[in-house]
C-alpha cells in the first residue's frame, strides 16, 4: 500500500532549478526570481484523490486530481503551456507524467522519514527539491 502523503512540508533545499527552468524556456528574469523562492508544499491525500498546493510568496499553484485519471493541466502560471497529465503510484513514489510540448516532462514525490523529496524533469534536465514535514 502506498504511503499517505498528507501534511505540510517546508522547503529545505533545491538543486539545478535554473537549468530545469531553462529547459522549459522560462526567461532569465523569471528564472532568477523562481530560484530565490522557497516554496512550501501542502498535500491532502484522501483515497484516490489528491490536492497538492505549492505555496510561495509570489503565487500558489494547486493541483487537484484523481490518481490514475488523465486530465488537462493548465501550466499557465508556470510556463504558459497546457499538457495532458496523469499521476499514479509506482511503488512508494507518486509519479506525474505531463504530455505536451516538452519531452520527458513530469515529477515524482517520495518520502524518506519525515522528508518529502521532489524530482522534476523536463527534456534532459532534472531538478531536485527537499521539504521537511512540519504537521
What does this structure look like?
By secondary structure, the chain is mainly beta. It has one domain (7-133): Calycin beta-barrel core domain (Lipocalin, Beta Barrel), CATH 2.40.128. Helices cover 12% and strands 56% of the residues. It has 2 helices and 10 strands; from the N terminus they run βααβββββββββ. It has helices at 17-23, 28-36; strands at residues 7-15, 40-46, 49-55, 61-66, 71-75, 81-90, 93-99, 106-112, 115-122, 125-133. A 10-stranded antiparallel sheet has the order 4-3-2-1-10-9-8-7-6-5. β7 (93-99) and β8 (106-112) form a beta hairpin. The longest helix has 9 residues, at 28-36. The chain is globular and about 40 Å long. The mean pLDDT is 94. GO terms for molecular function: lipid binding. Belongs to the calycin superfamily. Fatty-acid binding protein (FABP) family. Monomer. InterPro entries: Calycin (IPR012674), Fatty_acid-bd (IPR000463), ILBP (IPR031259). This is RET5 protein.
List key phrases describing it.
135 residues; mainly beta; Lipocalin; ten-stranded antiparallel sheet; 10 strands; 56% strand; globular
Global structural class: mainly beta
Strand order of the largest sheet: 4-3-2-1-10-9-8-7-6-5
Strand runs, count: 10
- Structural domain tally: 1
Helix content estimate: 10-25%
Question: Roughly how many Å apart are the termini?
Answer: 22 Å
- CATH fourth-tier homologous superfamily: Calycin beta-barrel core domain
CATH class: Mainly Beta
